[in-house]
Design goal:
The protein is mainly alpha-helical. The chain has eleven helices and no strands.
Length: 247
């Protein structure tokens, strides 16, 4: 409990310095609102923020589902077929080397201004850490256990279900945590380029009206979504990997 409380000390100090700095130097709210005003707007405009936050959260969750549907079979194929790994590894790296801002306008043209382009944008960012982490988890499996399963003439599915998948689960959850932490980036960039709702869309609209307090409030709600997803993945991880605590 003491360690958890200590984690909030730097955050509280940051907000205090921010608040005092804004008041001391009389900074105009449309340039940099004090945190007290941001928190107040986040509460008073909660109905508006909630509506847009639900759109962004839905895009992130759908993007996460799409990324998992692609990343897990891809990692399994790359692990069991080295030729697939050698063929796809450069493409995976190249997919992350391309700036997402460059992809966003193309996805809007191809998929339209609806939810689909934002879901795909989020999935593009999410699937890489999941794929790489799961693949590394498979590779780190103890060779002696693999030899034992070979001697027992275990089938492909038996080795995957009873050996490689359980062994790779800690790496999988590490990659999933990293993925949900950056998932908001893809959805918001997609909304910046073209959308009619969502926190990214709201940020663009409020910025044009010099409502910096609403922009910061949107960022705060976006941060809460990311932290909520991180916490949810952590809870599932603790539930699935219960043996880690027992060990």
């Amino acid at each position: 409990m003491h360690n958890r409380s200590a984690a909030f000390v730097p955050l509280c100090a940051f907000f205090i310095v921010w608040e005092v700095g804004c008041r001391l130097f009389n900074v105009q709210p449309f340039i940099l609102p004090p945190p007290s005003r941001v928190f107040a707007v986040s509460f008073l405009q909660a109905s508006i923020l909630f509506t847009h936050a639900m759109t962004t959260a839905a895009e992130i969750l759908l993007g996460l589902a799409l990324a998992l549907a692609v990343a897990v079979p891809l990692a399994i194929s790359m692990f069991y077929h080295k030729i697939v790994e050698r063929a796809l590894s450069p493409l995976l790296v190249a997919s992350q080397a391309i700036p997402v801002f460059a992809l966003a306008p193309l996805l809007i043209v191809w998929l339209g201004y609806g939810v689909t382009s934002k879901v795909v944008m989020a999935a593009v960012i999410i699937f890489f850490p999941i794929t790489v982490s799961l693949l590394e988890g498979f590779k780190n499996c103890d060779k002696d256990y693999e030899l034992l399963f070979d001697l027992m003439d275990a089938s492909f599915w038996q080795k995957l279900r009873l050996l490689h998948w359980p062994w790779a689960l800690p790496s999988f959850f590490a990659g999933l945590k990293m993925a949900v932490a950056v998932a908001t980036i893809g959805a918001v960039i997609g909304e910046w380029v073209g959308a009619q709702r969502g926190l990214g869309y709201l940020m663009i609209q409020m910025n044009a009206r010099l409502r910096a307090d609403m922009v910061f409030a949107s960022i705060l709600w976006l941060t809460l979504i990311g932290m909520g997803l991180w916490g949810l993945v952590g809870l599932v991880e603790n539930k699935v990997l219960y043996w880690k605590k027992e060990g």
